[in-house]
Amino acid sequence: MLAKRIIPCLDVRDGRVVKGTRFVNIRDAGDPVERAGFYSNEGADELVFLDITASVEKRRAIIDVVSKTADAVFIPLTVGGGIDSPEFMQELLQSGADKVSLNTAALNNPQLIKAGASRFGCQCIVVAIDAKRANATGKTGGSIKNLHWEVYSHGGRTPTGRDVIEWVTEAEQLGAGEILLTSMDADGTLDGYDLELLAAVTGAVKIPVIASGGAGTLEHLYEALTTGGAHAVLAASILHFGTYSIEDIKKYLSARGLPIRPTGTERYIEL
């Protein structure tokens, strides 16, 4: 079994890491370069850097900050924000990114996924999806087959009318190598991931799915990786504000029987 990955997320606005609740009530969480280096040294498996206002402001991710962040880490780095062409993908990859994350631009032009995968390989293309429940309220109401989630663009500001399962299936067919799935309903709440959304998406595609939105306890991470079927968990609030460390998370998940890469300071399992 492949090792499960622990991935800190740096949502960046105006050159600073920020974190909100359900995409609003934004709080400052530090300098992206400092945070990136800290998580890399702590033993994170990967890092995600998202310039969260790039699409809304109709600009591209901040290359100089991306480059400095890449220089500060020794783990794979995924970068997203206003990526609208294979040429800009190449610029980011040459600046130190290992993968690029497509969201709004891919919704506007799905062939961008195919173009990126053809030029750089599927493993470089992550399709990020911001999903919101469209026909149910609460975290656990209804059954999976009766639930429906809508895709939002422009940093969660714009409903697209697109069904999440239809979009994730299309993205896989076009060449996406990974899905970064964020529940807008759960984001920043600390109440746990939307496990029904996760299970629906992981059941619909064969490519890896990263769970995002809602982590508040170590048990939430475990549930996303087991009940939800995720291959990796993204975390922000619980890491940025010191609730848990990467080592805390890895020790807990390893003790629960999941295959986890060691942090470097201690081997939890033999891989």
The strand line-up of the biggest sheet is 1-4-5-6-7-10-11-12
What is the count of β-strands? 12
State the name of the first-level CATH class.
Alpha Beta
Write the CATH fold name.
Answer: TIM Barrel
**Global mean pLDDT:** 87
Report, as a whole number of angstroms, the end-to-end distance.
9 Å
Low-confidence spans:
137-144, 267-271
Helical residue percent? Answer: 25-40%
CATH superfamily: Aldolase class I
Spatial shape: globular
Strand count, sense and barrel status of the largest sheet are: 8 strands, parallel, barrel
State Rg: 17 Å
**Number of self-contained structural domains:** 1
Q: What count of helical segments does DSSP give?
A: 10
Report the β-strand fraction as a percent range.
Answer: 25-35%
Helix/strand/pairing category:
alpha/beta
Secondary-structure element series: EEEHEHEHEHHEEEHEHEHEHH
CATH architecture, please? Answer: Alpha-Beta Barrel
Protein architecture, described:
This protein has 271 residues and is of the alpha/beta class. It has one domain (5-266): TIM Barrel, CATH 3.20.20.70. 32% of the residues lie in helices and 25% in strands. The chain is built from ten helices and twelve strands. The chain has helices spanning 32-42, 63-72, 86-94, 104-108, 111-120, 164-174, 195-202, 218-225, 237-240, 246-255, and strands at residues 5-13, 16-21, 24-30, 47-51, 77-80, 99-102, 125-133, 149-153, 158-163, 178-183, 209-212, 232-235. It has an eight-stranded parallel β-barrel, surrounded by seven helices. The termini are close together. The model is unreliable at 137-144 and 267-271 (pLDDT under 50).
